[in-house]
Specification:
- The structure is a single chain.
- The protein has about 170 residues and is mainly alpha-helical.
- Helices cover about 65% and strands about 5% of the residues.
- It has 7 helices and 2 strands; from the N terminus they run ααααβαβαα.
- Strands 1-2 form a two-stranded antiparallel ribbon.
- Helix 4 (about 45-80) crosses helix 5.
- The relative contact order is 0.08.
- The mean pLDDT is about 85.
C-alpha cells in the first residue's frame, strides 16, 4: 500500500524533479556511503545486477561504442585513404570494421598513451580533441606486422615496386 502511494507521488513531475535533486545532492555529499550501499545491493543479488548490467551493455553502451568507433574510423579513413568506408590505410581491407584497428603512426609512447589507454578511452579523447594527427586505420594484420617487423610487408613491396619502376625509367647506364 505504501509503495503504491510512493510510486504515485514520485510520478508527479514536480515531485520527481525535487526528489531526484535531493538524491543527487545527497550522493554528492556522501559518495563513499552510497558506493558502499551500491556494492552491498549488488552483492545481495548478483544475478539481478548481472542481468541489468548485460541489458545496459547490449542496449546502450555497445551501440554507442560502435557509433563512436565508426565515426573515428570513418574520419581517419577519409583523411588518409580518401574513402568514406573505414578501410586499412596500407592494404585497403574494408570487409568489416572488426578487422580494423586504430594505429599510432609514431607509436603509443610518442603520444603519451599508456598500455591501459585503449578502445573507447582513445576514441573519446580523439573526438574531444577534434581528430588530432598521429593516427591511422590499419587492419590487424598490417598493424601487427608494423609492430613486430617495423614496417608492413605491403609497404615493403610497394617500395620495392617503386624502386624497380624508377630503375626502369632511368636512362643512364653505369
Amino acid at each position: 500500500k505504501h509503495n503504491a502511494w510512493k510510486r504515485a507521488y514520485r510520478s508527479i513531475p514536480e515531485n520527481k524533479e525535487r526528489i531526484n535533486k535531493q538524491q543527487r545532492e545527497s550522493r554528492a555529499k556522501n559518495p563513499k556511503y552510497y558506493r558502499q550501499k551500491d556494492k552491498e545491493r549488488r552483492l545481495r543479488n548478483p544475478e539481478k545486477h548481472r542481468e541489468s548490467a548485460r541489458k545496459y551493455h547490449n542496449t546502450t553502451a555497445k551501440p554507442k561504442f560502435e557509433e563512436i568507433k565508426n565515426e573515428v574510423f570513418s574520419h581517419y579513413s577519409l583523411k588518409l585513404s580518401d574513402s568514406k568506408t573505414p578501410c586499412c590505410n596500407c592494404c585497403g581491407e574494408s570487409f568489416s570494421i572488426n578487422f580494423l584497428a586504430l594505429d599510432h603512426i609514431d607509436g603509443r609512447k610518442s603520444m603519451g598513451h599508456k598500455p591501459s589507454h585503449t578502445g573507447i578511452k582513445i576514441y573519446r579523447e580523439i573526438l574531444k580533441n577534434d581528430f588530432p594527427d598521429g593516427f591511422q586505420i590499419l587492419c590487424h594484420n598490417c598493424n601487427t606486422a608494423k609492430f613486430q617487423l617495423g614496417t608492413c610487408p605491403h609497404e615493403t613491396a610497394r617500395k620495392e615496386e617503386t624502386f624497380a619502376m624508377m630503375e626502369e625509367q632511368s636512362s643512364f647506364e653505369v
